[in-house]
Amino acid sequence: MPTYKMVVFTNPRDHRDDEFNQWYDERHLSDLLSLPGMKTAERYKVVLGEGWRYLAIYDVETDDLDGLMTEMYRRVDDGEIFMSPAFDEHYNLFAATSLGPMRTA
Length: 105
Known about the structure:
30% of the residues lie in helices and 28% in strands. The protein is α+β, with helices and mostly antiparallel strands. It has one domain: Alpha-Beta Plaits (2-Layer Sandwich), CATH 3.30.70. The protein has a four-stranded antiparallel sheet, covered by helices on one side. A hairpin with an 8-residue loop joins strand 2 (38-45) and strand 3. It is globular, with a radius of gyration of 14 Å. The chain starts with a strand and ends in a 9-residue tail after the last strand. InterPro entries: Dimeric_a/b-barrel (IPR011008). This is DUF4286 family protein.
């Protein structure tokens, strides 16, 4: 089955970092991990680069990436995946597949 890394760059609304981080850590990650094919999730604070303050990386395993994304957006639209008012709706989402094995030093 194909595997992917889904990478999402996000920002909270102004001065709502605590609320945003609490929602993301305590609710949003669990909501997304309930989707079929979502395997792992890890969050980061961006320390180098402009425009984004937070980053999440998800490991995904699915034969139907488009179907997974459709289901995710359906759940958001239906309110099954709650989106905090602290979340700035402007975000960047990328999905990528590996070009080869991971290398180490």
